[in-house]
Queue: 4 jobs
Job 1
Amino acid sequence: MDNAIETTDLTKCFGSLTAVNKLNLKVEKNTIHGFLGPNGAGKTTTIKMIVGLLRPNSGSVKVLGKEVHVDDADSRLNIGYMSELPKFPKHLKGTELLDIYGRMYGMAQQERAAQIPKLIELVGLKGRENDLIGKYSKGMQQRIGIAQALLSNPELVVLDEPSIGLDPVGMVEVRELVKTISKEGMTVFLSSHLLFEVEQLCDHVTIVNTGSIVASDRLENISHQLGPAMIHVELVDLSATVIAAVKKLPFVSGTWRTGSTLMVQVNTYSDIRAQVSQAVTGAGGVIVGMSQKNANLEDIFIQLVTKDQGGKPQ
Amino acid sequence: MTTMKNPSRPRPSWFRRFWAIVRYEMLWNIRKKKFIGIILAVFVIATLVLLVPVIGSRTSGVPITKNPDYAITFGGNAFVFLLLAIGTAMNSFSSEFESGTIVPLVSKPVSRTMIFLGKLFGAFVLLLISYLVLYGYITVASVAVYGSQNNLQFMPLIVIGSLLSTFIWVGLLFAVGSISKNTIVTVIVAISLFLALLIAGPIVTVYSGPSQSLNYLPGTGATGTLIVGQNATSINAGTDNVGTNLVNYALYPSANVSFYKTNLTAITVNETALPNGGLLYTESTGSIATISVAVGCAYTAAFLAVAWIAFKRSQILE
C-alpha cells in the first residue's frame, strides 16, 4: 500500500540530546494515524521534520512519495499542518488570514471565496470571522488553526494535539471533523495526549518514546500484544509479596503497577477474578476494587512506555 | 464538510506566492500601532520644523524670508531615516519568532527566500509611500511658508536618496532581528549604532578633519563646502545625504566640494564655526554622489545578505 508518510532512519539532535533517533515511520494513505508518546518523546520534533520546518541531522522524510526539504516549498503544497497551540498574526482578521494563506497555496480567488466561508462554518467561527485574531480566545485560535490546515484540501493533514485548548463540546466537534475529512480521502496524522481520543479516532497507532518507535501497527493488532484481558486490582497497599503471589498464577503473563493499583495481564478469556482475589488476599493484600476489561490504549501505552523506560513488568 | 479530496495541487507561480507575503507584511505593518505612531511622529517633526519660522515671524513681526530652495534642500534627516526604518522593519522577523507566527507561515508552500524577499518588498513599498506623502506634504508646506519653490523636478532624487539612506537601517534591523529573534535587542542595537556614528563623526572631524574615510561609514560623512558663484553651502557627503548629493550633482555637475582641516589652535570661545585649518582635498559633486550611493548600496546589500542567511538557517524550535 502507498504511504502518505515514510521516514527512514530519521534523526534529530539538539546538542547532546537526541530528540529523534533513527525513526522509521510509515503512515498509510487514507488512514487516521495516531502518534503517541509521553512528554519529550520526540513527537513534535518528528512532526516538524515531516512538514519541513526542521532539518534532520540524518535520515529522510518522504511525504506522498516526495522527499521533504526545508528549502523546498513545493513539497508542502499537499500538506495541511496545525501546530500545537498555533499562533497567528493578531492584526489579521480570520478571513484575511485564510485568504492570505490560500494565496500562498496558489488558490484562485473563486476557490478561496468558495472554500473560506465553508471552513469558517465548519470550525464554528461563523459570526466571528471578521474579528481580529488578537480578539480570539485560545479555543477560537485552535479552530482557525484547523481551518487553515484544511484550506487547500490537502492530501495529508498533520495535526499536533488538535484538541488542546478546546472545551468538551469543541473536542467532540474536532473528532467528528477528523472522521469526516478522513472519509473524504484525506490522510490524517495526529498526535494527541488524549488516549481515548486516539482510540476513538485512529485505525493505526505509532507509539514513540525517547525518540524511537516502541510500537506501530493497526490498533487491534497492538491490543492483541497484551492478550485478551487486563484485570485491574485496587488495593489499600500494594506490596511486593502480593505482586509475587499474583505472578505465580499460571494464566498471568505480566503485571504492572500504577500507585496502589495492580494491572494483571492474563492469557485466558475465562473470568479468573476469583483466583486473582484469592492470591492477593492469601499474600496479605486488602482489595478495595477489582475489574476485568479488555486492554485499552491506555494499558497498551503504559505497558509499552514502561517497558521501554527500563521498567520491567513487576 | 463539503470539500472533496484534492488531487495533487498544481505548483502555483512564484510571483503569486511572493505577492501573498507582500500583502501579509503590509497588513502587518499598517495595523501596527508602533508604525502608525512613528509615521505620525515624523509628520509632527516635519510640521514643527516648518512652523518654527512662521511662529517666529508672527511674534517678531519680521516677515519670513522667501527661500525658493527650501523644499529641495529639506531631504536628509538621519533621525527620520532611523525612525521610519524602525517603524517598518524592527519586528518583521523577530516578532514572527517571538509570537510563534513563524510556524504556520513557514509551513505553507513558500520558501524562506520568498518570505524574506516578500517582507523586504513590503517594507520598500511602505517606505516609498511614506516618503512620497512626506515630501509631497513638505513641498506644499514649503510653497505656503517660503513662496514658490525651485528645482522641484528633482524631488524624486530626494525620495530615492531617502529610501537608500533608510534601507541601510532596514538592512541592519533585518539582520539583527533574524539573528537575535528579539525585537528589543534589534532596536537597541540599531539605536546604539546610530548614536555611536553620530558621536564618532564630529570627534573624527575635529581631530583629523573631514576625513574621506567618514564617507565609507553609514552616517553624515565628511562636511565640505560647495561654492557656486557667490554662494557657499555646507554639505555632508555621507549616506544620510544621498538625496541631497544626487540633487547637487544634477544641479551643479561640474562643481567641486572643498573639505577643510579644522585648526584646533585657532578655536576661540566666541567662534560659532570651526576655524579653517587649510584645504584637505576637493571632490566633484559627481564623485560625492557616486560614493554615497555606492556605500549606501554596499551596506544595505551586506546587511540584507546577513539577514537572509540567518533567516534561512534559523531553526523553528517553539
Note: The mean pLDDT of chain B is 88.
Job 2
Amino acid sequence: MTKLLSRFAECLFWLGRQIERANALARVLDVNQSYSYDAHGGRNWRMLLHLYEQEEDFRRRFGEVTPEAVLYYHLLDNGNSSSVRSSIAQARENARTLRPLISTEMWTQLNGFHRTLTDLSPTDATPRRLSRLANLIKENCQAHVGITMETLYRDEAYYFYRTGQQIERADQTTRLMWIKFHQLLPMGAEEGSAVDVSQWHALLRAAAAFQAFSRENPSNLTPEAIMGFLLFNPLFPRSLVSSVSAAAESLSCLRRDFDIIPGSLAVSQLRSFQSAILDYDMEKVNQQGLDEIIDWAQSELIKTTDLIGLSFFGLATDDF
Amino acid sequence: MANQVQSSAEARAEALLSQYSSGGFYCELFEACQEKAAGAEELVRRLNAFTTGELAERAAAAERELMMLGVTFTVYTQRDRIDRTLPFDVIPRVLTGGEWDRISRGVKQRVKAINLFLADIYGEEKILRDGVVPRALIVGNENYRPIMRDIKVPFDSYVVINGTDLVRGGDGRFCVLEDNCRTPSGVSYVVENRHLMQRAFPDLVDALAIRPVSDYGQRLSRALEELAPPGVSRPRVALLSPGTYNSAYFEHVFLAREAGITLVEGQDLFVEDDKVFMRTIAGLQQVHVIYRRIDDAFLDPEVFREDSMLGVKGLVRAMAKGNVTLANAIGTGVADDKAVYAYMPRIIKYYLDEEPLIDNVTTYICGEPEGLSYTLDHLEDLVVKPVGASGGYGIVIGPHASREDLEEVRAKIKDDPANFIAQPMIELSVSPTLMEGEVGPRHVDLRPFAITGRDTWVLPGGLTRVALRKGSLVVNSSQGGGSKDTWVLD
C-alpha cells in the first residue's frame, strides 16, 4: 500500500484551512454590513482589521479606514495574503498540486471559483454590492465542501483535509469572539438596549449560529448564553468544542485506521486540549475572563498546527 | 432584396462540407470515404447535418469546458503564468481499421528494433563492430550515456513509452518523420479529446465502431509493474514530474490519475543504501519503478547537471544497482537523434532481418559527403533540420524560405555539416478543420504511442496534430499547432 506523500498531506491540510477561512471572512463582512449597527447607526469597519491583526498593514497601504477600502482589502486585495481572493488563489494552487488525488469535480469547481474571483474588479466589492459578493463566496465555499464530502476518497488524504478545516474553524470562532468581546465591552450601550441586542445578534450570525442558538435558547439572549453556546455547545458544528473534537477525532482515525505511526504528539496535544475544553463551563470562564480563555485556545491551536507539521510534513528523514 | 436575404439564408443552411476542397492534397477523411469505409461515410453524413455556425457554437462550448477542466498547458511570460488550452479541432481525423493495423505493426517493429539497438550499443556493440552504424555517431553523440554500459534493463525495454511521428504524403503512404524515445508527450490529449467528443458531440460519436483509448492508464501501469526489479512482488510505482510549474504538469497529473500511481517531485524522493524512498506521512517507503518525465540531464545531480533542483541525488546509483527501474531508461535519446534516424531502416534490417513496415522519409545526412553535396545543390527544394533540436525549432522549409534564409542556413550547414539532415518536402495530408468560421483543409500528422513492458502495445490512433494556419506545415504545439480526436473506425 502506497502511503500519502508528506507534501500532499500538507497541501490538503491547508486546502481545508483556506476554504474555511474564506468562507468565515465572507460571512463576517456580510454580517458587519447588514446587522452590526452601533448607537449612531454606523458600522465599525475598523474592528474588522483586528480580525487578523492587520490594522498596521492596512494603514500603511491604504491610509484612512473607509468601508470601501476595508472591503477591498479583505475581499480582493492580492497584497493581503488573508484576503478571500488570496485564500482562494492559494487553495487553487494547492488543489492543482493535489490533482492526482482529489476528484475532478473538486478541481473543476475550485478552478471555476478562482477564475470568477480573478475576473472581479474593485467595484464588485463596494458596500452596495457586498451582499451579492459575500453570497457568491459563501455558496462557492459551501459547494466546495459539499463536493469534497461527496467525492473525496476517504483515505488518509481526507483526514488531513478535515483536520485542517476543523482547526481553522476553531481558530475563526475564537477570533470572532475575541473581536466582538473587545468591541462590545467599551461601547457602553446599556445592557438589553436595542443596539446591544443587535450586536449580540450580529455575533451569532457571523458565526452562522443565530438560528441554532434561538432554537436552543428562545428567550435567553444573554452574552453569557451566547458565549457558552459558541464555546461549549457540542451540537453546533462551529463551536470551539465541536471543531476541536472533530480535529482530534480526525487525527486519531488517521493513525488508528491507516497504521500511521508518527503523529502521537499531535494527537495527544489535541486530545488534552479537547478534554480541557470539556472541563470548562461558563462559570469558570467568568472567573478567568473570556480574554484569557481565548488566548489559551489560540495558543493551543498554534501548538497543534506546529506538531502536525513536525510529525507529518517535515522533510527531515530521521524523525521517524 | 428579398431574394438576396433568402439566398444567404440558404447558404447558411448549406451542408457543412459541401464547399470543402482539399486543395489538391491527400484528404484523410474523403480518401477514407473513397475506400468505402462505412464509418467515414457516416461521419460525413453526420457532419453535413451541421451548419458552420452550429459547429462553431458547439466547438466554443467545448473549448470553455477544457478551460474549466484545466486541460491546459502553461505559458510563462516575465510577469504572468497563463493557462492555455491546446487548440482543439472538433472534426475528427479518421483512419480505417486495416490502415491502422498496418501502422500498429510498423510501430511495434520499430520499437522492437530500437530496444535491441539500445541494448546492443550499451552492451556488446555488435552493430558498431559490424560497421552498420558509424561508431563516432553513437559514442560521440551528446545523448549517449556511458554510464549505461553493461547495465541490465528489464526485458531490454529501454524505451517503455514511445511516440512515433508519422506523416502521410500525396501518394497516401505513411512515413516515419521522427522517433520520440525520451519522454514523448501528448497522450493525455488523445484520451481527453475523445472524452470531450463523447460529451460535446454525442450525435457524432454514437453507434460508430471507434476503437477505444480509455485503457491507456491501465496498460501503462501494468507495463511499469512488469518492469520492477526482479524479486519485487508488489512494486510501488511513481511518476516523477518537474512539478506544478512545468508546462506539461496537466499531463503528469493525468497519467498519475489514470495509471493510479503516485505523482512525485524530486523533493519527495530520497536515496539511501542505493535504494529510492519517498517521504510519506508514515515515514519512508521504497519505490521500485519510476516513470520519469525529467530529462536525463536533470535526473541526478551526482551524475549529470550538478545544479539540477528537479532530480534526486543517488538515483543513478540506485538504478545501476538494480534497485529501481527508470522508464524510459537513461540514454535512450541516442536512438531518436535525427542523424541516427537516417540509419533506422538499416537498424531494423540488422536486428530483425525484416524490411521496415513503415518507411523513413528519404534523408540526406549532411555529415556524409554525398548527402552534403546533394543538400547544398537542392536547398530550395528540401526541408533542413538541425540534428539536436526538437519541437520544430530551427527547421528551414526550402520552398517557403526567403533567399536570405536559404543563404543563412547554407552557411550554417557548411560550418557544421554533421549537425544537419535534409529531407524532401512532403506534401502533408490534410483533414477538414474548422478555423475562423469556415471548414477548410489543414495539414496533419500522427503520433501513435507505444508502451513496452514484457510486450509492446500500441494505443489505437494516437495524437493527430494539426497546423492551424492555412498552408502551414508546422504542427508542433509549441509553434501554434492544435489537435484533433483520432478515430480508428472498424
Note: Chain A touches chain B through 31 residues (CB under 8 Å).
Job 3
Amino acid sequence: MSSETDGELESQARKAQEATPGGISEPGGPRHERWRRRGREFTAPIRERMQQSRTWYEGRPAWAKAIVVLGVIALAAVVPFILNATLGVGAGYWEAIAVKVGIAALLALGLNVVVGFAGLLDLGYVAFFAIGAYTYAIASGAARFGINTFANPTQHFEIPVWHMYMWLFFFLALAVAVGSGILLGAPTLRLRGDYLAIVTLGFGEIVRITANNLDSVTNGAKGINEIPAPAIGFPGVHYQFQGSFQSNPYYWLLLGVIVVWIFLLRRVNAGRVGRAWAAIREDEVAAAAMGVPTVRMKLGAFAMGAAVASFGGVIYAMWVGFISPDSFTLFGSEFSSVIILAMVVLGGMGGFAGPIVGAALVVFLPERFRSLGDSRYLVFGLVLVLVMILRPQGLIPSKRRARELTGGELHEQTLYEVREEASS
Amino acid sequence: MTPILETQGVTKFFGGLRALNNVDLRIEEGQVFSLIGPNGAGKTTFFNMVTGIYPPTAGSVRFRGVELLDKVRVPYFPLVKRSRRPFQITRLGIGRTFQNIRLFPNMTALENVMVGVDAHNKAGVGRAMLKTPYQKTEELVTERRAAELLQFVGIGRYVNELSKNLAYGDQRRLEIARALGTRPALLLLDEPAAGMNPSEKASLMRLIQRVRDEGITIFLIEHDMKVIMGISDHIVVLDFGEKIADGTAEQVRANPRVIEAYLGRGAADESGHAMHADRDGGESDGDP
C-alpha cells in the first residue's frame, strides 16, 4: 500500500520537475502567477516610461510644473481644431464624442472623491447626475412651457435676456444635488462596505423611478424635450449656445469646469479633510478614536461627489436638449453608475489623471470599434478583466492607492523607494 | 481636587455574559494608573467604554467632572440629543492606543500623527478650497507639531516612512505619538509593551514616564508585571469583570486575591513564594 503511494508521489514530483525546468525551487509558482508575471514583463517598458515622466515631473520647480499643466490644458483645448483639421466634414461626430468624454471625465472625477478618497462604494452615483440634469431642465422652464429657442436660430436676432442668467442654474443644481446627497448620506453613512453599496444602489433606482413616475414635474417616461441652452450676453460679446449639433462650446465649457474642480479638489484632498478621508479608508475605528468625525467626513465626500456630478448633469441637459429617466440607469445608458465606476477603477483611484484617462478610454474605445457591433462590449469586458489582473490599482493610480492595492509588493514599492532616495 | 477620571458602578453585559460588574475607579491627575488582570478580565472592554466605542449597561464615567455618558446636543439639530461619539470624547482630552496596532498602514508616519493633531483643527472644505491664510497656518502648525511628536517618541528619522514599514516597536511608538497629537489630558495605553523584548520595554517605560512628566495622566493596561510595578502610582486588578484589588504596587502584590487570580488557589496559601515568583518571572503573569 505504502510503496504504491510512494511511487505515485515520486512520479508527481518528476512531472513537476519536468514542468518547471531548473527544479522545484524555480520560482514558477502557480500558472496564473506566471501569466501575471509575463503580462507585467510585457508592459514593463510602458510602466517604466510612465514612472520616469512622473519622477521627472515631480523633480521640477513649481513654475515648470505650472507650465506643464498649462500645456496639457492647452493641448486639451485645441482638440476640436485637431479633429476639424484631420477629419474635415466628419469632425462633428467626434466633437460630440469629445463632449461625452468631458462629461464622463467630470463624473469620474466626482465619483473618485467618494470611492477613491473616502473609500466608500457608491453604486448609485448617476442619481446626482440625474438630479443636476433634471434641476436644470425643470428650472429652465422646458418641462412646462416647451420653449424651443435654438431649433431655428435665425428667428432670434436678440438673445432672450434670461438665457444669460441660466448660468445660475449651475448653482441651483449644485444646491439640490448636495442637499439630496446629505439627505441620503446622513442616515446611511453609518453603514459600511456592502451595506452602503446596496443603499446607494437603491438610491440611484429611487431617483430614476421617481423621475419616471412624477409626471407633473418631470414629464414621466416621455422625458423633457427642448431644454433651452444658456447664452453669453455681455456688451460686445454675444453668444447663444446651441444644441448637440454645435458641440465645441460645450467641450470648452466642460474643460473649464473640470480644470476648476480639479484645482479645488486637490486643495481639499491635500488638507485636513483629505487626511481624514484617507484615515477613514484605512481604519475607521482608529480614525474615530483619533478625533476624526467619521460620519461628517463621509458626508462631505458624498456631497462633494454630488456637486461635481450635478455640474455634469447640467451641461449634459444643455447639450443634449432632451433627458428622460432612461438616461440615468444603473447599467445600460451612456453614463450609468456602473460605467462611471468602471472608468474610475480602470483609470486608477485616488488621483486626478486616472479617472480622466479611464473616462476617455471607456467612452472612446467603444466608439472607435463601433464596427465590431455589440461584440465590442465583450472585448470591453475582457479588457477590464485583464487590467484588473495585471494592474489592480488601475492605469494611473495615485501613489498611496498603488501601495494599498499591490500590498507593497513588486515594482511599485521598489520604485517608491528609489524615488525616496532620489528626493532625499 | 476632582479626579481626572472617575467611574462608578460600571457594568457591561454582552448578551448574557457579564463582562464588567460594578467597577469603581478614581484616577488622580498626574498619575500613572494601571489596570491589570488575567485575559478576559474586561480590561479592554473598560477602555472601549471610556472612549465611547460602546456604552456601558449601567454606571457613570466622569472625566474632569463631566459625565461622559450624558447625551449631548447634535450640531445643527437643536432638538436632537445623543450619546457622545468616540471622536467627541477624543476631543475632550482622552487619547488612546490599541492592543493590536491600528495605524493607518499606507500613510507615512508624519501623516499618521497629523491625523491625530487634526483633532482640534478647524479648517474644513471651504477654507481648504480658498486656501485662506488661516488654513495655511494651520497646515504648517499641524505638520510641525507632528514632526515634533515623532521626535519626542524617538522615531524622528522615519517621518516619511510608511507606517507599515516600521519595526514593531516603532509602530507602538508611532501609535503613542498619534494619540499625543490629539492633545490628551488622559492617555489610555492598551498593552503598549506586548511583544517587546526587555530592552524595548525598558525604553518604553522611560517614554511613558516622559509623557507623564509632560503633565499627561497615564491609564495603562498591561500584562507585564515588571513594566507595571516599575512605573505605576496606582494599580487596580480586575478578574472576571470584578475589581478585586485597588492600591499601590506593594499593596496589590501582597493581596491574596490577586495572587489567587493569577496563580491559582494553591499559590495564594503560600503567598510568600508567589510574591517571589511574581518578581522574578513576570512572563508567567499574563496567561494563567
Note: Residues 272-288 of chain B have pLDDT under 50 and may be disordered.
Job 4
Amino acid sequence: MKFSFEWLKSVLKFDLNPKEIQEILTLNLAETFLFKRGNRLILDIELLPDRIGDCSSHLGLAKEIALLKGNKFSWPKVKVKETKVKIEDYLNVKIKTNNCDRYVSRVIFNVKVKESPKWLKERLKDCGLRPINNIVDASNYVMLLTGQPLHVFDFDKIEGKNKKKEIIIRQAENNEKITTLEGKDYLLNEEVMVISSLKDALAIAGIKGGKKAEVDKNTKNIILESAHFEGSAIRKASRLISLKTDASYRFEHNLPLELSDYAIDVLANLIQELAGGEILKGKIDVLKKDAKKEKTLIILEWQKINRFLGVNLNKKEVLKILENLDFQILKKTENYLLVSPNTFREFNYPEEIIGEIARIKGFNNFPSCPPEEILKLPEENENWILKNDLRSWLKGFNLEEVYNYSFISKEEGIFFKEETKRLISLKNPISENFYYLRPTLLFNFLKNVRDNFRFFDKVRLFEIGKIYYFEKKLIVEKEMFAGILAEKEKNKSKDLFYEGKGIIETLFEKFGLLKEGFQIKEIEEERYKSFFKKGLEILDNENNFLGVIGLIENEIKQFYDLKESEIAFWEIDLENLRKIIIKEIEFQPLPLYPAVIRDISFFIKKNVLIDNILFAIQNSGVKYLEDVDLFDIYEKEGEEKSLSFHLIFRSKEKTLTSEEVDQEMEKIYNSLKNIGAKIR
Amino acid sequence: MITDLEQILNLAQQEIQKINTLRELENWKIKYLGRKSDLSLFLKSLKNFPLAERKEKGRRANQIRESLLELLKKKERVLKENSFAFDDFFDITQPGKKIPLSHLHPLTLVLNEIVGIFEKLGFQIIEGPDIETEYYNFDALRIPKDHPARDMWDTFWIQSDNPKERLLLKTHTSPFQIRFMETHQPPFRIIAPGRCFRYEATDVSHEIQFHQVEGLMVSEEVSLANFKFIIEEFLKTFFKKKIEIRFRNSYFPFVSPSLEVDIKIQDKKTKSIYKDKWLEIMGAGMVHPELFEKVNYEKNRWQGFAFGLGVERLAMIKYNINDIRLFFSSDLRFLKQF
C-alpha cells in the first residue's frame, strides 16, 4: 500500500529520514519499499492482514510511527459546521441485512462539482489513485487519510417519498442487475449486498458504486455514505463477482466500527472546503443491534510478561507502551494490571498484548538466552531412522535418489485404466500435467528415465516418497521405497530383474530379514498386476503385503517412449517393512569345527524352479548341510540349463571326515535325480 | 628469495632426483630456471654489486645455470625412455578404478542436517499426512474460512465424496502442531519435516510442492528469548559461514507475536548469488494461546514457540542453486553434483 511521505509529515512531526522510516517499519511493522514519483517520496508498505484494519491510512500509519518512537498520537478532533436544516427530513436509511453493522450518512446541499486543486490531485496520484472530480476525489482522499472507504450519491437521482429519500441496505435479489460507475454490467445474487433506493441498486455494497446515482458535473445535492460491512461477506461477494477494489480490500479486513462516524465528518468538511455547500444538521447513524461487541477485559500479570518474553521489563516502560496503545488501565496492583482494550485494534488474550509490547520494543532488542529445560533424550522416530538407513545402503548400490512430484498427468491417469478408479484427483488442478495424486512412484520414474536417456545410457534411481489412492472409498496415503533400473541396451531384462531382486534381498538381510523372514509369489495385488510382464510379490510371514518387483510391461514402456529399453522396478511398503525388521544384531558364536565344501553341477529342465531344486536338496534327508549357494547358471540352447552349487557341510560336534560327507552327498544326488537332474 | 647460489644448486639437485613425471619436471624447470626463479632474480640483481664481486658472482651463477640445464636434459631423457621401456612398469599416475557410488538428493542432505541439529538440542522427530482436513490446516490454526489471512495459502483441494470434511493438500507443516498437541502433554520439543503444496504459478523461486520443517517447543517457561537463542544456534551451525541474523515482524494467525527470521551472508570470499542481501529463512513466533485451548490444555499454564523453515530455500542458499524447479527435475546432471 502506498503512502505519501510528504502527507505523512504533514500529519505527524517526526525526526526520521526516509531511510530510517523504511528500516523501522520493515523491522517492526511490515516490509517497506521507498521510491520516488517525480520528486515526491512514496513509501510502499506490504501491510500484513492483521494491520490493514488500522494502518491502511495516513493517520493510522502516523499513529504506528509515533508508537514505534515511543509516543502517543491521537487522531485530530473534527468539528462540522452544520445548517439548521435537519437531515431526518430528507433521508431515511434502513438496514435489511445481517452483513451491515453500521451505516452513517450525511447530506450536503448546493455543492459545486469541479476539478480538484493540484495538491489534492498530487496526493491521490502518489497513492496510485486517479483524480476525477472534487467530490469523488474528496471521498478517496479521506479514505487514504482515515482508512474508511466512503461513497457519495447524487441526492436528486434517488427515489423517495415526497422530498425524503430512502436508502436501503439489503442483499441483492437473484439475477439483479447493476451497472457500475465504469459502465460495466454485473449480474448479482443473494450472496451480494447492495445499497439500494426504493427501486434499484445504487451500489454493490463495499465494492463499487453504481451508475444510477453517480455524481456528475451537474450534481447539486449529495448523500455521503460511511459504512461498516462484515468483512467476510464483502470478501465472498467480491470473489463471486470477481471484482476487487480499494474499498473491498479494506472492508475485507474488518475496519474498526468507530471509524465510519469519524471519517464522514472529515469528508463533509473537506467537501465543503472544495465544493462549498451546506451540511445538513446531524447524521443518520444506523447501527445493527449486536454490532458493538462487549469488550473483554484482560488481566496482564507482570510475572507472565517476564516469563513470556524471557526478560524482566521495566514496569514504567510497559505502562508507557500501553498508554501509547490507548489501553485504559482500570486497575493496577503489585502483581497485575486490568486493562480494557482500545477501540481501533482487537486484543483478546494477554499474550497478544505482550507480543505487541515485544514488537514495539523491537525483537532485535531482546536478549537470546538458552532455555533451562530438563535434559531428556528425544524419543526415536523409527520410520525416520529406517528411511535414512535405507538411503545410506542405496547410495552404495549405485542408485541416485530423486524427489518427484506427488502428481501425475491426466493423460497418464487415463492410460492406466485400471488405476483410474483408484486415483485421487484435485478439485483445482493447476494444469493437466499435475492432475491426479500419484498412486505409485513408477509413473514419474518412467518420465525420469525417458528424460535422462538423452544424456545417459543407464538410469538407476530410487525414491522414498508417498503414494495416494482410494481403497474402498477411503483415502490411503502410504510411504513407499521404490527403485528403477533402466538400460538402453537390449536383452538385459533378466540381469536387471535379478539385480533388483538382489538389491532387495541384500537390504532385507541388512535389516535382519533372512530368506525365512518373508515369502515370494506371483503378483496378485490388484494395484500392481498390470504394470509388469514378469514380476513377483513379497509378503511377510503373516501374508501382509511388503512389495513388488518386476519387469515393466511393453505397452507401458511404449507409452513413455521407452519401447527399446529394459526396465526393472520395485516398490516396497515402508510401514509394513518396518514392522518386521529386526533391529538388534545378535552375535552368533564362531564355528568350532571346519567346514567341508563340495561343489555339484547338473543339467536340468529350464522350467524347474530354483526354489524347487533347493527344496529337493534340503529335504533329501541330508545332515550337516549348513548352506547352499548357487554360483553358476548356464542356459544352453534346447530344454536344459546347467546349474552349479556350493554345498557347505559342518558339524557342531566334530570335524567331518571325507567319508561322512560323501554319504550325505549321495542323499542329495538321489533327491536331485528324482526331480530329473542329470549330474555332471 | 634465496641468494646463496650453492644452496640453489643443492636444492635443485635434491629435488630433481625425486621427480618421476614430465609434469613434475616442467614445474622444476619453472622453479629453478624460469623468469621468476631465484637464479634469474639473482642474475638481474647483479648490477647492484661492486664491480669485482659482480664479475665473480656472475661467472659462478652462469656455471650453475649451465649445470641445471644439463640436469634438466638428462632427466628429460630418462623420463621419456622410462615411459615405454619396461613391461612391468607400474604407472602410479594412472587414474584409480572407478567405484560406482551414487548421490543422495540435496534435499535429503539439507533435511538431515536441519533435523540433526535440532535432534542434538533434544527435539523429537514427528511426521504426518500430506492430505489434510480443512480443520487442521486452517481452522484449528485460527485461519477461518472467508478470512483474508487464507490468501497467504493458496490451496489444492481434493476431490472427495465426503461433504462433512473438506480435504486438501497441506499448505504448510503447521497442522502437525495441532495433531501432536492433541495427543501429547507438554513439556516437549518436536521437529516435523513434511511436504507442502501451494496452488501457484511456478518460477525460479516458486513451486507447487516444497518441503518445510516445523518446530514446536512448549513448556511452562520457554520464552521469546529462548526462541531467539535456539534459532540463532541453529542458523550459525547450519550455515557455517559468517552470517548476520535479524528478526522482523510478521503475521501468522497461529502465533503471537509473529516473526520472520532473515539472514545475510557476509563472506567476502563467497561467490554466492545470495550474499550481501537479507534473505527470508523462516516464519516463527510464540504459540497463540487459542491453540492450547483448542487442544484442551490447562489454561494459562503453557507457553512456547513454533517455527517453519523452508527446506528448498535453505538448500538453494547452501548450494548456491538459482532455480527451485531443479529439485524435482530428477535430472541426473543436477543430482550427481551432490
Note: The CA atoms of residues 141 and 291 of chain B lie 7 Å apart.
